[in-house]
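User: Quick sanity check before I run a bigger batch. Here is a single chain. Can you write out its predicted 3D structure?
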Amino acid sequence: MLDSASTSSAVGVERLCRAALAAAEPSGLTSVCASRVVDNRPRGVVWASDPRARQLDDLQVVLGEGPGVTALTEGGPVMVPDLQEQWRQGWIAFERSATQLGVRSVCALPLQIGAVRLGVLTLHGTEPATLDATQLGQQLAICDDLSVALLVADAGSGDWSSVLDAALDPPLAVTSQATGMVMVQLDSTIGEAMARLCAHAFAAGLSLEVVSRSVVDRTLRFQPDRFYPETSPDEPHA
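Assistant: Done. Predicted structure follows.
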């Protein structure tokens, strides 16, 4: 059961995402997704307007590239009016996969407070589209409020993580749980655990949610990398 702070946070995030979508629709951007990050990488969806918006975010998490990843790295908006006229190097896999989803235009804006990166807001359309200066200003204002909404905490306990985790939608909650389990299995950092999850999803051709559920259901377990001592030139390699 969600406490009042968790419920307020979830409702606030959804309301702000819907406001961002309403402000962007006149430009031709017709879907929105807000996601959290870990180690400056998208981690999973907090709220999405439709399945394709969720798939687009999952795609960037698994591939480790795309407008959302770049927006987080550079700390500013990344607008791609037409993916079929690719202008940025390094998105080859993303451009191909996003086009297969029917995505044509993307606008990604980092959710941050000062130097602290909290997430990313991604708007996309099925036709060429971009934001004008006024519309971009509206989105940046919404992003400021959305960043604060992601930091809503229970003033009594001061436990931000529990409040935020309770406010997550089920797929991200599963991914969060799986990442924690993999971190323990590998005795690694949370960022390394997330990277291993993404690598497995990419190699197996599965979504991050499917792989995460396998970890949580204990049908998939990660093993630490094994390092072997180097042999001498005269000894055969094992």
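The longest strand covers residues 116-125.

User: Great, the batch can go ahead then.
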